[in-house]
Design goal:
The complex is a heterodimer of chains A (217) and B (124). Chain A has a single domain (25-214), classed as Rossmann fold. Helices cover 36% and strands 25% of the residues of chain A. In chain A, strands 3-2-1-4-5-7-6 form a 7-stranded mixed beta sheet, with helices on both faces. Chain A has 217 residues and is of the alpha/beta class. Chain B is globular. Chain B has one domain: N-terminal domain of TfIIb (Single Sheet), CATH 2.20.25.10. Chain B starts with a helix and ends in a 9-residue tail after the last strand. Chain B has a 4-stranded antiparallel beta sheet. In chain B, a hairpin with a 2-residue loop joins strand 3 (107-111) and strand 4. Chain B has 4 helices and 4 strands, in the order H-E-H-H-H-E-E-E. Chain B has 124 residues and is α+β, with helices and mostly antiparallel strands. Classes of the chains: A alpha/beta (217), B alpha+beta (124). At the A-B interface, helix 4 and strand 3 of A face helix 2 and strand 4 of B. Chain B: It is found in: Cytoplasm, Perinuclear region; Nucleus, Nucleoplasm. Chain B: Pfam families: Trm112p (PF03966). Chain B: GO terms for molecular function: protein heterodimerization activity. Chain B: Its main location: cytoplasm. Chain B: Belongs to the TRM112 family.
């Protein structure tokens, strides 16, 4: 998969929108590594939650152009705009929705779900942002994960059964501090199969990509 | 917002809403973006779509003459209809407009092609 062009995004954009970094590239590498599986799975609806700059969903859209509907969601309207402009610059078809997680999507419709959540361990207060100026808020939302860096991830996992289509798959980025083993056990109880699909050490962080599928019945 | 996306949107997350589908669509400004026609993809996507919402979108987009009110059988063999569906679902782009919850009347504006479907905490 090609890494999409992002030269059109400026340092001013990155004051409000998460700039692609090692975590984003690990997620891209994981999708690339699993491309054969994805091609066999033939996803109709691909969704990235919290698309930020839009690099990941744009790369996916280029890969599945004219064979899947690619949709990006973000609670930050500036991220929606950045995603749209990244798609446009790379001649990709990406639809953007300004919403929370996959809240407005019909039940069990998503075939391929990708999420690089706000995973940094912070206090819940920091995550709730009472004292932060509105302009800074959106960027804090992009990384501050509250206790165990899991607040947002846990909300998503609780809804996962209602989000994924019968043969849907989720690629989720995690940090060691997010306690991946605990998440795998939790998902197993919910009748999902979760595996550490890739991992990478970068200075100061140990990143994982969890691949989650339904246990076939 | 493409009309294929519209087909997947609901307001079910609003407190008290039972179905929240299909949303009432209003188009104030639209674009037509030419995209490559892949009949196989359109055909494979159909089982995931709700035909009444496909037809509803066609009416709003003033393309109802192209789309039958009831889903015909054997669409796979009807290349012309697949082409018209491709145009409706992937080429019509709603730039300005709104989506409205059929049960509560809550309006979700569409600006610059992006629907704002954020809900306040007290709405969910």
């Amino acid at each position: 998969m090609e890494t999409p062009h992002t030269e059109h995004l400026t340092s001013e954009d990155y004051e409000f929108v998460y700039e692609p970094a090692e975590d984003s590239f690990l997620l891209l590498d994981a999708l690339e590594k699993d491309l054969q599986f994805l091609e066999e799975q033939q996803p109709h609806l691909c969704v990235e939650i919290g698309s930020g700059s839009g690099v990941i969903i744009t790369a996916l859209s280029k890969k599945f152009s004219n064979s899947a509907l690619c949709l990006a969601t973000d609670i930050n309207p500036r991220a929606c705009k950045a995603t749209k402009s990244t798609a446009l610059k790379n001649h990709a078809q990406v639809e953007c929705l300004n919403c929370n997680l996959t809240q407005p999507l019909r039940k069990r419709s998503v075939d391929l779900l990708v999420f690089n959540p706000p995973y940094v361990v912070t206090s819940d207060e920091e995550m709730q942002l009472q004292n932060i100026a509105a302009t800074e808020r959106n960027l804090v939302y992009s990384w501050a994960g509250g206790q165990d860096g899991r607040r947002v991830t846990d909300i998503l996992l609780k809804q996962l059964d209602d989000i994924l289509s019968p043969n849907g798959v989720l690629y989720l980025l995690l940090l060691r501090e997010n306690k991946p083993e605990e998440i795998i056990n939790y998902l197993t109880k919910l009748r999902f199969k979760a595996v550490k699909f890739m991992e990478r050490r970068i200075p100061g962080e140990h990143l994982y990509i969890l691949k989650v599928t339904r246990v076939s019945t | 917002m493409k009309l294929s996306t519209y087909n997947f949107l609901t307001s079910m997350a609003i407190k008290g809403v039972k179905v929240g589908y299909p949303l009432k669509l209003t188009i104030n400004k639209k674009d037509v973006v030419e995209t490559e026609f892949n009949p196989t993809f359109v055909e494979r996507l159909l089982p995931k779509l709700d035909w009444s919402a496909v037809y509803g979108a066609a009416q709003v987009a003033e393309l109802a003459d192209d789309i039958p009110a009831v889903q015909p059988e054997n669409i796979a063999e009807n290349e012309l209809l697949l082409q018209k569906l491709h145009h409706l679902l992937f080429e019509v782009d709603v730039i300005e407009g709104q989506l409205e919850c059929p049960e509560t009347g809550r309006v979700f504006p569409i600006a610059d092609g992006i629907p704002n479907m954020l809900l306040n905490e007290d709405e969910v």
